[in-house]
Amino acid sequence: MKRYILLAAKIAIGLFLLLVLFILAVRWNVFGKIYTEEELIHYKNETASVVLSENEVVLGKYFDKNRTNANFEEFPKHLINALVATEDARFFEHDGVDTRSLLRVLFKSILSGDKRSGGGSTISQQLAKNMFGRSNHGFLSLPVNKTKEIIQAKRIESIFSKENILTLYFNTVAFGENVYGIESAALRYFNKKVSDLNIEESAVLVGILKANTYYNPNKNPDNALMRRNVVLNQMHRYEYINKKTADSLKQLPLKLNYNNLTTKNKAGHFLTYVKKEAIKIIDSINKVDKTSYDIEKDGLVISTTLNEELQTYATEAFASHLSDMQEKIRAQYQRNKYQKRILNTLVETQLKQMKIHPDSAKVKRKQSIFSWKESKTDSISTLDSLSLENTILHAGLLALSPKTGAVKAYVGGIDNQRYAYDQIFSQRQLASTFKPILYATAFESGKHPCYYLDNDSIQLKEYKNWSPKNADNTFGGKYSMQGALLNSKNIPTINLYLETDFEKLDTIWSRLKFSSRLKNVPSLALGTTNASIYEVANAYSVFANSGKATTPYTIVKIETSSGEVLYEHKHKSGKEALSKQSTAFINEILQNAISRGTGQRLRSQYGVTLPLAGKTGTSQDYTDAWFVGYNPNIVVVSRVGCDSPKIHFNSGLGAGSSLAMPLVAKTLKKAESNTKLRKELNAHFSPLTEFERLQLDCEDFKEKTGVEKFFELFKKQETSYKKEQEKAKRKAERKKKGFFKRLFGKD
């Protein structure tokens, strides 16, 4: 018997020594690093950088891990109570390890096999796991990791207060969907700051911690509701709330305000653009100051110029207007056989480019389909999918302050996740939005608004007998420059182009910061050159800003999480690109275009009352529709069109006033109902001087007098006689030349 007792004692001592040796091995970093107290003090979370609107609404984040740190003072008392009651009831009593819980787990879970007894880890131990993760050591993984967490928890408790531990815990814990930290979780599931959470919302978030997929309130609401009620029961059990409160809260339905800024964001394209700009700034700071800031890890705060309310109104305008127009263009391509053939030909060409056999293209498979109501997955062939994609109307809208260049609204497309290409920088035909630039050049060259231009039908033989027409197919009489521009007449504009020095036009084009090169051809007058929404907004801001050019910008300030300012935008006075008088003429004419010209539907149909000047634009065959609306405080530009210029409306539905203007009109109409925004945008143009008023005092249109017609006929006869003389002269010269000289250009 003594021999067995001695053997058991030896085994026990051996196991004890082995356990001590094991613990020492873990402590001595044999199984991986355990962080020292000094290293723990300097521990730093990888934290997402936050992007704020001008009124400090969170627009989005840039992150490797979606985490935003919060301070202890921001945590509601009931949130802390919910966590302690559910995860570690004796948190305020132990020093990192709850011996009672450990023994319970040891005897119930391991020895008796009761899985309901819990994990036994304290908040401090869980924090150690959140901070440093777990490593794989084969069959020793569990004892090694648990031992490391106990040692690490003891060290955490020795240097941090309980408040600091709770702060670190709430900022490191995972809530599923790549969301880390309570602040990010509150924003994701309830679209609010952690400080604004109520008791039942706090219970939902604490409930997620047990299993962040199974208890995800967005994906598994029933499970989340059940777990929330368990947390409320725990809060009652440990006397943080009374039974009446617990019972009433458990009767409440699960209410989420789910806000995934990663997958669905009304400022998605803007955030992509800002990230590029911010990285340039941060790289420059790192280079100059020898720092190593990382936009995805260092929790920077990026304050932007975007007005979140105006952005919301713009995105709502997109959904409201384009959903209606989308149905109309699809219907056109369904019923019109000629148009349907064009679409089918385009799809066949695309299939060849993609090297997809026509038979394979007819096979149906599950695909994501864009819809303004909701994107869905359905069984559809590649053939049908391409037909749908080609008839999608893409659009962009940019609003900026002409005085400063601050971007106020930025909608780069119809869906930033599905269509990442940013329409703000897409180069498309300018159409009639080019005309004010030509007219401004003419004013700069000395012409005045009451200078009259012929509206007779013309044919330009040097350009393949091109005969431009007005949109309404009328001709005859004369238009003042004022009347021609506000009514967007093509023939007088061509005549003006022929009278304007091209080099002067090219110089002003460059001053207005356009990137494309101009070609000296008469069709240029009608906007056959390309430009982007960004460039048009920047150019029209010169008109709105009395001739001075500014540079658009989006980032106001970049700060560290502690409030240190790394960068701040400094406003620079704009250089003069046009004279104040020329822009005064343009502004007055384009205000008249809104009140009685091509843009009058802005008032009559949409009821916008803000002081505005504006210009519509419709490119050839309705390929692209443009609209610009502006005053001294805001410039808004929109453009709409399909990806391929072959696909477009075949009627006035594709005109600038029908397709592009409503995006601006609906945005500004809602802005008018916002008292603060209305006050900000309600800016009148500077009053005209007496001289400027006199220069604009004339009729838009007048018939030619008999005298004018007589001299015009005489002029035509004289021109015809001169042409005949020149023709005869060239014929005589040709006869003088020998046969070989005429044939080869030499004797």
UniProtKB/TrEMBL annotation:
Catalytic activity from the UniProt record: Preferential cleavage: (Ac)2-L-Lys-D-Ala-|-D-Ala. Also transpeptidation of peptidyl-alanyl moieties that are N-acyl substituents of D-alanine; [GlcNAc-(1->4)-Mur2Ac(oyl-L-Ala-gamma-D-Glu-L-Lys-D-Ala-D-Ala)](n)-di-trans,octa-cis-undecaprenyl diphosphate + beta-D-GlcNAc-(1->4)-Mur2Ac(oyl-L-Ala-gamma-D-Glu-L-Lys-D-Ala-D-Ala)-di-trans,octa-cis-undecaprenyl diphosphate = [GlcNAc-(1->4)-Mur2Ac(oyl-L-Ala-gamma-D-Glu-L-Lys-D-Ala-D-Ala)](n+1)-di-trans,octa-cis-undecaprenyl diphosphate + di-trans,octa-cis-undecaprenyl diphosphate + H(+)
Location within or outside the cell: Cell membrane
Pfam family, one: Transgly
GO molecular function, one term: serine-type D-Ala-D-Ala carboxypeptidase activity
Keyword set includes DNA-binding: no
Biological process according to GO: cell wall organization; peptidoglycan biosynthetic process; proteolysis; regulation of cell shape
Pathway annotation from the record: Cell wall biogenesis; peptidoglycan biosynthesis
Key words of the record: Carboxypeptidase, Cell membrane, Cell shape, Cell wall biogenesis/degradation, Glycosyltransferase, Hydrolase, Membrane, Multifunctional enzyme, Peptidoglycan synthesis, Protease, Transferase
Limits of the Penicillin-binding protein transpeptidase domain: 398-653
Stretches assigned to the Glycosyl transferase family domain: 59-236
GO cellular component: outer membrane-bounded periplasmic space; plasma membrane
InterPro entries attached to this UniProt entry: Beta-lactam/transpept-like, Glyco_trans_51, Glycosyltr_51/Transpeptidase, Lysozyme-like_dom_sf, PBP_transglycosylase, PCN-bd_Tpept
Family as reported in the entry's similarity comment: In the N-terminal section; belongs to the glycosyltransferase 51 family.
Name the record gives this protein: Penicillin-binding protein
Species per Swiss-Prot/TrEMBL record: Oceanihabitans sediminis
